[in-house]
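Loading example: each entry is read as two labelled lines plus one structure line.
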Amino acid sequence: MPLSLSDPNWYPIASSEDLPFRHVYQGQLLGRELAVWRADDGNVNVWENRCLHRGVRLSIGINEGQELKCQYHGWRYANQSAGCTYIPAHPADAPARRIENRKYPVKEAYGLIWSSANDEKPFVPFPGAVGEDWFALRPMPVNAAPGDVVAGLARLAPDDQPADLLPGMTVRLGDVVYFVQPIDAGRAVIRGLLPRTPTDELATLRHYNEQLTRLRDRLERAAAKKPAPEPLQPIYEKVSADLATMPDIAVPRGNTLNVVVKRKWQSADGVIGFELADRDGSHLPTFQPGAHIDVHLPNGLVRQYSITNGPGDLLSYVIGVKQESASKGGSKVLVETVREGDVLAISEPRNNFPLRRDATRTVLIAGGIGITPLLSMARFLDKSSLPYELHYFTRNGESVAFKSELDVLHGAVHIHTGLARDAIQGTINQVLGPHQFANHVYICGPGAMLEMVQETASGLGWPDEAVHFEYFQNDKTIDASSAFDIELARSAMTLHVPAGHTILEVMREAGLSVPSSCEQGACGTCLTTVMEGEVDHQDVYLNKSEKASNTCMMTCVSRAKSARLVLDI
Amino acid sequence: MPNAIDPITRNLWHVVAATNELPIGLIETTLLLDTPLALTRGNDGEPVVWLRSDEEQGDEIDAETIVERLPVRTAYGYTWTCLGTPTDDLFPIPEFAEPDRVNMSCGSIGIHVSAPRAVENFLDMGHFPYVHTDILGSEPHTEVKEYDVEVSEERDEVLATRCRFMQPRAAKSATQAMEVEYVYRVPHPYCAVLYKSCPEDESRRDVIGIFLQPMTEERCRAHLLQSMIDSTSTITDLRRFQQTIFGQDKPILENQYPKKLPLDPRAETPIRADKSAIAYRRWLSQKGITYGVIPQAS
């Protein structure tokens, strides 16, 4: 039977011992090359052996533990999802689009790594697999058609004990089970299993190796006399049309997905931790450090929470929620009514607080619950052995959240507890120091603290583009008393925004679908390009120079000072 | 099976050897566009190129006896030939004629990849910190800043300007890290020229050319030219520097799949840093080049 690129059977593609930590193994199956690697959490990834950017083999890439880094341009792809998390050529941008490598099903069992060309069949143990402690023989590559290799193996059987031919190119010879891995039309690998570890491992391995070497020599002599079969021609799938054009920086409003609350615990005084996982145990979408998710609450409210996870850690998202006494009902519902086992709808991760990884010095400053995005950043920097300092200000020792997670970081982590305002300012002044080339600071915390850090940094000569911040919320009182027109350049529409209504609301009412998240000018999701007109900025997302440039705005709270605004929508 | 050679490629001048490395009175053999060639130099030092039949590398020959000759040009230290009818003159590199420059060929290196892949790698700055670590770039200075690209209609070439990159050791004569500014030209489908700020003289630019000899659709030879303002380094040092750089690119290029350059925009994932590569691919597509590329399905 000729081989097919779409053969749905599972075949072994490597031995478990071919995949030590921090190694990338080059596998082959049905004419395709595979990059096979084990992450530090033990998960095995089987990906097309090709970086989506410029087609360089990922098997020459670097296994960084939870991410695989391409040798050519340093693009990083996450464990589990194969989603791109970082593009070093544009370190200030979050990879705005979903760039995901092609991945194949994988199963590690009986000392072997198994994969298949597609998801059509679930993995099923071979007959008689269960109950034995299998021992893998040395693999034997053969330059012959896989079907001929199966036939050759069957002929090894003695006359009184014929071979047992099992489905999926499997041959049982007495105790030994052989699997033929079809590499291409004219190439195969024989992988054998013994039902238990032999007493003399080396002698046994050698015995079977010699037997298979003789078989290989016979098969290759026979194959040399036949015309070489035509190799399979793998098809490289095209990337989606939106990836093929040069990206603008735009984050589409993603679909929601349902997650289950796997764990809920008191992380610190006043901070509740939530671990959110896929209901079927699949991994969650790729995120970048600094990203947040919208959580749709049972009472209809939508709130944003930062993901605290480190790189390649996609089996669940961990968020931290503050038990606020004067909560408007968002955190309160989560803290009081949501329990372990409940299902919540969340958005796909969005990143409006991206981390540059090209800094010579990175300072992370957290106030209270503001630790959450910075913990994620610290974990990414930690895993890449990049230098950073994390300064975490809390009211007292009991309110230090994610203590055990912070304890295992290798960077400089300083926890400052119980400092008064002046002392905080003094510490920040000292921590920042005068600005130097390629220094960046990231701040997340209460509004007053953010303003203090921004002022201090500015006084020390830090330019706006080196000071990155994320507000929890916009504490400013929004003045919605103005009325004006908006002209939507790409949609060819002019709309009137009356007093008391936001630009976002007016656009939605007109039938436009526009992304938004917090809708209070804090998260950055509704960022829009302004082509003409003067903006009345009321958000806390844009920095001073961005506001002064008058080229962008947040449509959820900001308005117009002029009678008309022209927006790139 | 090799693709039929498109007429544009057939009628181009192609580089085949560093002229002064061709032995006088002895045969060199090579491959151009799947066509075996034989080369030698006459007693006058002028190269002669013809279609190879049963000649072997190293055979003795008197160039005078070769009757059926291919057209030949010598330029920038290299010998160029054409399998069809040359329509245009070879592209200009005016700096080459400046009297105080050190001009040198830096070797001819075989690479198992198509010529357009090698051109694209030459235009790329994003790989400096990863492939030319601590020479042309180093982490964490990985950013490719915005730059400008145009296709000059008048000169029919791709031109990228204002390309800037932080480099620890931009040239042999550099002693400390500096932000270098590059200008890239692609004046020929298989050749590119770069101009970079010169560490020795701020007002002038070093010139580095890469001329690819497409041997087959998936194999080429890279011929390197340096035209430098450098009063201290020896030619050996300058050559060694360039060969180190190219030796770092070679294994990456040979691990690129497919080996031919895909012109379909959806074959790979471009980012803003790849503007010059995108312009180059479009330019090849519009010219109708099919040799060494996977043309966009129409």
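The mean pLDDT of chain B is 92.
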